[in-house]
Amino acid sequence: MPFCFASQLPYFFDFKVNLNPTAVACAIPVVSYLCLVRALRWRRYNAIHRKYQAKFMSGTLTPEDAQEIILVSCAYDMPFLLNYALAFALFKTYGIPTISKLLCATKELGSKDNVSKRYADTEILISTWVGCPLSGIKFDMQNKPDVKGSGVTDPRAMIALARVNWLHSRYNISNDDYLYTLILFALEPPTWAENYGWRACSPMEKHAYYVFWAEIGRKMGIKNIPESAEAMKEWSTEYERTHMVPAQSNKEVAKHTTDELLATVPESLGLKHFAEGITVCLLDETVRIAMMQPTQPWYKHVIVRSTLLTFAFVERWFLLPRKKAKLPGAVDEPKDMSGPCPRLYPSKFQVKPWYKPASTGVWYYVNQILVKIGWHNEMPGPHLRSGGYRVEELGPVRLENTGHEEVMRMAAELQGCPITGPWSLEGRQ
């Protein structure tokens, strides 16, 4: 029997009439909100692609362009996920015995007392490279150039690079170990975004990660950097095949680092043991074997993946995009730059609260509560540098007052001009 649309109209109008007004009133703001999320969530992504797609297609992206591109994913769209991607990239290097043995010998990660300081400083230094302009020409974190500025006004990225170069110069580190670490920083964020993020990185973003980290590598003096992200992947795969082997030093360094990451998880009811297993699930099989970690049951892998993908689903469809950039270190300049010595505070604090301001009034009691519940293991204070940090001071406590002149000289060479103004040594006077 042929379908007659007109014959169905009474049922259609009857359905409209019988709609619950309360349901309609509730549905309209919900649907409107979801549409708003959808409209805004991709706005920054679309804008950066409109700005740089032509340069990407022509192969002319500069390191400064690449830095602006990667900030969209790592500082706005997926800051927490991609920060952990970098943390696990560094963690992955501990599966190389030449790296783990050096860390054990220097006691930097061979002792749990030093892990928290090194972890805090490493996050700050890397986020300073990523979030402060490589060129030194100030830009804001809304991806707009500072048209009023002229010359180098924010040299912190080069100071941070110089500080790392100075610290590393004290040790005999092979070029291949440097290169492997650099490659993981370039490859792991796009990999984590694809596996666990609310969106994957585009080909342009993946290339931008390569361009940015290759530039960092050149400024660190790393040689034989592969000429593409694909070549980086091939090189790292072969390096892992030949150099990532089981060693007791791997296991020891991994244990101290895992203890720091899970310091807030209680021992009771086997919660910490369970969390340690969850951490192992995030490792590649080659890394797990090299770190001499036990095989985890299938259900833990399911828990890890389903939890991360649930967060990604909620973030993509139900959460409005971030308005301000989120990086572990302080990348915005202090509001008051008139003082002689700008000191900075990170945006997140470790269990041992390095660089967290000592509080007074009600916040003192808040910090006491945080200590009692295990969020921090002690109160902030001068012994944890509660007065903040300067980039040239970062590193082991025994070296925090050492090498500043040489660091500034090295930073000036990297920047191509002297370091002047409030970030210079003279600015501390």
From TrEMBL:
It comes from the Eukaryota. The keyword Magnesium does not apply. It comes from Crucibulum laeve. InterPro entries: MPAB (IPR046366), MPAB/Lcp_cat_dom (IPR018713). This is ER-bound oxygenase mpaB/mpaB'/Rubber oxygenase catalytic domain-containing protein. Keywords: Membrane, Transmembrane, Transmembrane helix. Residues 170-296 form the ER-bound oxygenase mpaB/mpaB'/Rubber oxygenase catalytic domain. Coiled coil: none annotated. GO terms for molecular function: oxidoreductase activity. The chain crosses the membrane at residues 20-40. The keyword NADP does not apply.
